[in-house]
Design brief:
The chain is of the alpha+beta class. Helix content is 23%, strand content 40%.
C-alpha cells in the first residue's frame, strides 16, 4: 500500500467533512519507510492535546474558506507506515451542544465518504465514543486496494479534532509488536488526550 496515498485519504476525510473549498496539504515526497516509525509522546500546548507521534511530525497550517467563514486548520502528519495524522480546527461557535454533536459527527462521516468516493470506501466499524468526557465518533473505513483508515473525531467546545491512522489492510506475514498495524493504530488512537484550557 502507498502510505502517502493513505495519509492523503485520511486528510481528505477531514477536509471534505468539515470544510468547503479546502485544498489538500502538500506533503514532501520523501520515500516512505516500510518500518513503522517509533512513537513518542508529543505535547501540543497550542493544540491542547498530547498523543504518541513520530519524533518530528510535519506541520501544515493553513486558513481555508468555509460556510462558517475563514478557519485556521492545523495538521500534524507522520507520512510513515502506518501513516498518522492529527488535525484540529476552531469554529466561531460551540459545537459541543446536544443539537450539533450528532449532526457534526454524521457530517464528518458522510462528507468524508463522499470525498473519497473514487476509493470505493466501505465503513466496517462505527461507534459513538467519548474522549476525556467529550463526544466523539470512531469509524473504520476500508478502501479499494490494500488500505484501511481508522479515525476518531472528538468535539471539544468550539474545536473538532480528527485523529487518523492509515495502514495496509493485510496483516504482515510475521506479526510482532513492531509491525502489527492494528495494534499500532490502537496505541496511537488511544494515546490521544485533551489538555483542559
Amino acid at each position: 500500500m502507498n502510505t502517502r496515498r493513505c495519509l492523503l485519504i485520511s486528510l481528505a476525510l477531514f477536509s471534505y467533512t468539515i470544510l468547503s473549498n479546502a485544498q489538500q496539504p502538500t506533503l514532501n515526497n520523501s520515500a516512505q519507510s516500510p518500518t513503522p516509525a517509533p512513537l513518542r509522546e508529543y505535547l501540543s500546548p497550542e493544540g491542547r492535546f498530547k498523543v504518541l507521534l513520530c519524533e518530528k511530525p510535519e506541520e501544515v497550517n493553513e486558513t481555508v474558506d468555509s460556510a462558517s467563514g475563514k478557519l485556521a486548520v492545523h495538521q500534524l502528519v507522520c507520512p510513515s507506515t502506518p501513516a498518522y495524522s492529527v488535525t484540529y480546527v476552531d469554529y466561531p461557535f460551540n459545537l459541543e451542544t446536544a443539537d450539533l454533536v450528532k449532526k457534526t459527527l454524521d457530517k464528518a462521516r458522510d462528507g468524508g465518504l463522499a470525498g473519497v468516493a473514487k476509493e470505493d470506501p466501505r465503513i466496517t466499524l462505527e461507534s459513538d465514543i467519548s474522549i476525556d468526557g467529550h463526544p466523539g465518533r470512531f469509524f473504520q473505513i476500508e478502501l479499494k486496494g490494500d488500505a484501511i483508515v481508522r479515525t476518531r473525531c472528538a468535539i471539544v467546545g468550539n474545536r473538532i479534532y480528527v485523529i487518523s491512522v492509515g495502514s495496509p489492510k493485510q496483516k504482515p506475514q510475521v506479526v510482532d509488536a513492531t509491525n502489527d498495524y492494528e495494534g499500532l493504530a490502537a496505541s496511537f488512537l488511544n494515546s490521544f488526550k485533551t489538555i483542559p484550557q
